[in-house]
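Below is just one:
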Amino acid sequence: MSFRRLGFIIAAVIEATGVAMASSAVVAGIYGEWSDARGIAISALVVVVVADVARRLFTPAAEMTTREGFAAVALAWFAMAFVGTLPYLVTGSVSGLTDAFFETAAGITTTGSSILPDLAALGHGVLWWRALTQWMGGMGIIVLSIAILPLLGTGGVQLARAESPGGLPDRLTPRFRETAKRLWFVYFAFTVAEATLLSFTDMGVFDSIIHAFTTMSTGGFGTKAASMAAFDNSAQWIVIVFMVLAGVSFALHFNALRLRDPLTYLRHAEFRLYAGILAAATAFIIIGTWGGNIADTVRNGVFTSVSLVTTTGYATVDFGQWASSLQILVVGLMFVGGMAGSTAGSVKVYRLGVLYQGSKADLRRLIHPRGVFVTSFGKQPVPDAIAESVQSFFLLYMFVFMTGTLAFSVFESIAGTNLDLVTSASAVASALGNIGPGLSAVGPAENYAVVPAAGKWLLSVIMIIGRLELFPVLLLFTRELWRR
């Protein structure tokens, strides 16, 4: 483990964060918010200068190893979360490091949880920063890797491998840097397309860009306290379409666009399962909420199911007021997620498919002890090592969920906030799956301001654990990672 290389990567990530922060100062200046612009600009300048000096001091002499890649990613995300608090603190939008860190962590992890009760009181520069943190976090560290990879050699693959939303990045080209560029080109193109379409609805240009940022990142930060319910039906349908696209592997998008063949999607087994889950969830929700205006029922059912499965977290209705049976479905959908290689969080459709097929194979082995049964997904055999890794991930995911819920309940009991079990469990499930709203006291119509300070720090850490798919953060606490 080379601390010099770790320091170099973390400094480079912080420097890139400072450069992105400067854009918020520009936006604040455009809208005449000079106090905010000055504070954010000074913060960005200090961050960039200090990080640039540190990066030059830590310039590595050799490429990064796999262990260093995992450690660098996890530490860099915590570093970004701390640095990202500055725009909130210097503008007075958030009081206290705890709330500022929570808001920033919810941004860079694309979780979308918030402690802010009145978004209308925020300046344009701060709203831009909230959305930008989610857009940057959508495909994660890969965007920064485009600038860093030339300095790392092949070690850059370990860096992206540790953070890639799907676990293992798809190699569209022999060179990973070119692959990252292509994925980010698709990501950027979809963002521009959505912002353009939304500008023709009742959203203004600013709101359109903000919601394009936070839709394609499956983040869910908006500009209104009422979330997407504040905008007309056409805007909601556009967001539905792009949430579905954001939940699809960006490598699959690139291949479909390159081949100009929409059937590329249907030939992909994981996409078919993803579409099936969306359809089934939508049907259950529409049936469960049937009544009143049929068009509204259908639209709200489609919107809610897509928002939950893709872990975007937007809302058009308060599903916290639904019947208990539907609330159970809501929590269940928090454990799904989009396709591997998408910007969605949670378990991911691929893993669920492998778990299901593996369970079928195990049942058949019980009936035919001497038979040889291979776990397959989409008619493709799944190597035993991958099947075991998926099982380990899911067990660890549920372990983090259960222990997180227990710890959260203990913290809120000590603080005397008396939050119920539904609030505790849904808050942790939402944080781990990078979704945003939970149920009860942290439902779509509420926010996380009611959570005690210790609970906010816990949820912030869980958000980062979930965004990095458990292992990079948990590996920080193993002796083997740091052993030379």
